[in-house]
């Protein structure tokens, strides 16, 4: 089509030149021909511009179509996984009903459950290819760090997550390895504590052989629920779904409404009424502007990835201001926390999962920076991961997740409801103005 249009534009131009040459064949022919050629050049330029615009529109439409198809495929996979999960539990009950021993019935059902969980992981990896289940990720981090001399006994963890209570699942995993974290959390995981805030945490570090040791974790977050809805999260005792990350959703809406330029401010300037949000928004706007981003093409996944890049830069700047490498060793882990929770937390048959993407991972020991390849650290066996995962949930003993023979482990529903929702979470979910819902 484009080739035809281009040809049509050229032919029209040629006809115009011929027409004018014949029509104005007189003593001033030379001048008129020059005029015609100039006009022809103008028409030619307009033709080229139209062709370029059409090419651009065609590319944009093709990209949108491709993205829609990919989203539909991922949604389909997630729905299949959910169905398989429900079927696996029905299968266990049916096998028991037909006289199979409960242990054997549970084993058959666990195999079906594993397939379902792996499908869910693949649906998340469609958007975040480096996403690992949270227990698998934390195990690899712990093993890699232990090999370099960082352990829970000799290291303080500095965690930088969003303020959202859903992020506490990852905080618990970090704390099960390193003990209580020094938190620099902010809306959307924006860093507003400054170097004085960072230094406060560092000054609490254990000292080994005269040196302090720190491990920094920094993760903005996003929800992709079990129905593969981007940004949706079901919260205990709250009807319907809500957003995660709400702060990044708000930034996305503002950028698409007003553009990036209007949201860039002089560094250091913020809105006194909304200090964190205004700092988050302007840091993101400046980062995206410097990357030449078109805000109309942003979505929640891409703005979350941009937040990861921006906040990682900010963290590394603060580290350069706050850490004295002659007195301390440290490691840095960044990425995105992904909540892949049940789209309906009142439905016991839908597992809730939690993932972490692998971003920057490195150590700085005696001033020497070295990368850490998390993907090359071997995963533990599913049984070992289950045991380790339960450590972070030990304060919440309703560990009711079925055993799955995969590194993708369910976040036990009882623990999740208690940790995020409160003490009544495992018994029933009481929605305002409604009868208690048997959970
Ligand atoms: Zn958030």
UniProtKB/TrEMBL annotation:
The keyword Transcription regulation does not apply. Keywords: Coiled coil. Residues 131-351 form the Limiting CO2-inducible protein B/C beta carbonyic anhydrase domain. Transmembrane segments: none annotated. InterPro entries: LCIB/C_CA. Residues 51-98 form a coiled coil. This is Limiting CO2-inducible protein B/C beta carbonyic anhydrase domain-containing protein.
């Amino acid at each position: 089509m484009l080739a035809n249009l281009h040809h049509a534009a050229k032919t029209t131009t040629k006809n115009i030149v011929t027409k004018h040459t014949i029509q104005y064949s007189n003593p001033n022919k030379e001048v008129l021909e020059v005029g015609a050629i100039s006009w022809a050049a103008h028409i030619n330029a307009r033709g080229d511009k139209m062709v370029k615009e059409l090419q651009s529109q065609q590319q944009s439409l093709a990209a949108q179509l491709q993205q829609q198809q990919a989203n539909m495929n991922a949604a389909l996979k997630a729905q299949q996984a959910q169905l398989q999960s429900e079927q696996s539990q029905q299968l266990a009950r049916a096998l028991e009903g037909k006289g199979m021993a409960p242990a054997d019935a549970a084993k058959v059902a666990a195999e079906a459950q594993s397939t379902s969980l792996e499908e869910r992981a693949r649906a998340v990896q469609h958007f975040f290819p480096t996403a690992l289940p949270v227990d698998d990720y934390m195990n690899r981090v712990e093993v890699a760090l232990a090999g370099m001399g960082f352990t829970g006994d000799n290291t303080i963890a500095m965690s930088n997550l969003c303020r959202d209570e859903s992020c506490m699942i990852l905080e618990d995993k970090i704390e099960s390895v390193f003990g209580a974290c020094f938190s620099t959390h902010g809306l959307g995981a924006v860093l507003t504590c400054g170097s004085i805030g960072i230094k406060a945490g560092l000054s609490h570090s254990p000292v080994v052989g005269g040196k302090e040791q720190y491990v920094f974790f920094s993760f903005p977050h996003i929800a992709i629920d079990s129905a593969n809805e981007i940004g949706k999260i079901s919260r205990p005792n709250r009807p319907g779904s809500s957003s995660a990350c709400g702060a990044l959703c708000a930034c996305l809406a503002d950028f698409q409404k007003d553009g990036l330029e209007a949201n860039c401010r002089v560094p250091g300037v913020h809105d006194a009424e909304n200090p964190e949000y205004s700092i988050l928004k302007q840091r993101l706007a400046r980062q995206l502007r410097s990357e030449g981003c078109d805000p109309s093409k942003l979505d929640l996944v891409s703005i979350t990835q941009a937040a990861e890049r921006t906040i990682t830069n900010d963290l590394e700047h603060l580290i350069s201001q706050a850490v004295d490498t002659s007195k301390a060793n440290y490691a840095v882990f960044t990425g995105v926390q992904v909540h892949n929770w049940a789209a309906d937390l009142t439905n016991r048959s839908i597992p809730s999962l939690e993932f972490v993407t692998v971003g920057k991972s490195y150590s700085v020991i005696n001033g020497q920076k070295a990368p850490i390849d998390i993907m090359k650290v071997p995963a533990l066996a599913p049984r070992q991961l289950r045991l380790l995962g339960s450590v972070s949930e030990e304060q919440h003993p309703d560990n009711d997740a079925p055993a799955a023979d995969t590194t993708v482990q369910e976040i036990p529903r009882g623990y999740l409801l208690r940790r995020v929702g409160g003490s009544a979470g495992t018994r029933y979910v009481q929605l305002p103005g409604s009868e208690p819902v048997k959970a």
